[in-house]
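TODO from last week: model RNA-polymerase II-associated protein 3-like C-terminal domain-containing protein.
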Amino acid sequence: MAAMAAIAEGCGRPELMRGMPNFRKETPPETATGSVNPVPASVQRNGVLPRNGHELARELKRQPTPQDKVLWLAEMGDDAYARIFRVELDCELLQTILAAMHSAICGNAAKEATEDESGEPAGCAAAAAARKTLGTLARACPKGLEFAAGFAGAKERSRAKALLRALEEQGGEESAAELGPVRRILLGDA
């Protein structure tokens, strides 16, 4: 009988642990509430500008279409970009931004775009927003932009080149002058 009690008390524990005391506090099943954490993992700040590149990337992913992404990026000012990218501009984030712009202006999203509230085609609004955002990035954080653009491969450079060409075509000569510093930084053109 004593042998049975010894076997029963060691049940459910590995053999090496059978002689070790159990210091875990066991909660009775009637008081156990499960694994509910009353404190949220992160507090979402809706309607507030992002504070860093990680928050910007997260907010960018929340935008449903490429046009929405480009228009949302244009809402931020020079000081916001300078504050967000004061340390560095992540090369993957830059490529995500450029891919959204390319898709909104040159890709299928531009062809499927309808008119916005002002009555002009959504592609024109996206192009103006993209020019504004790229100009702001070139003015507010040129070193970070140049550093991040340095990691671009041939595919990314050709996408940036097509984007800049489309922006210059839609914006005319003043757009070409405005995008000159951006072209120099992203493509290394003089």
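Done. The two ends are 92 Å apart (CA to CA).
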